[in-house]
Design a protein that fits this description.
alpha/beta, Rossmann fold, 5 helices, 5 strands
Length: 126
């Protein structure tokens, strides 16, 4: 089963994301970018990352920068989730290689489609 790493500091949203995806994916939840980075550094590699943009201790954009600077993780597709329509954050995320930038609230089925597309894109880039 493909692994989806969700990095989100909102508990109810974590619950919802897990509920949406648990039948199709192995879902791992981390509450902030630093926790996720530590998990990745322990040798774990998900097939796709869904990350909130605004989080304490290593936000989504800083996480993207770290992923890009690492040889091991730069090819993992990242879908950014944000409640902030700030065009600069969206632009920066895309410049850093985010697969997509989805605004909250989001359509659950659309997110599932994007996760599938992200995983398929990873296969094409191997």
């Amino acid at each position: 089963m493909k692994k989806v790493l969700i990095i989100e500091d909102d508990g109810p949203l974590c619950w919802l994301l897990k509920k949406i995806m648990h039948n199709k994916y192995d879902v791992i939840i981390m509450n902030n970018g630093m926790e996720a980075w530590s998990w990745l550094s322990d040798g774990n590699t998900p097939d796709v990352i869904i990350s909130d943009v605004e989080m304490p201790s290593l936000d989504g954009i800083e996480l993207l920068e770290n992923l890009n600077n690492s040889g091991l993780f730069k090819n993992i597709p990242v879908i950014m989730l944000s409640g902030d329509e700030n065009p600069e954050k969206r632009k920066r995320s895309i410049e850093l290689g985010a697969f997509n930038y989805i605004l909250k609230p989001f359509e659950p089925q659309l997110l599932l489609v994007e996760v599938g597309r992200a995983i398929a894109s990873k296969k094409l880039n191997v």
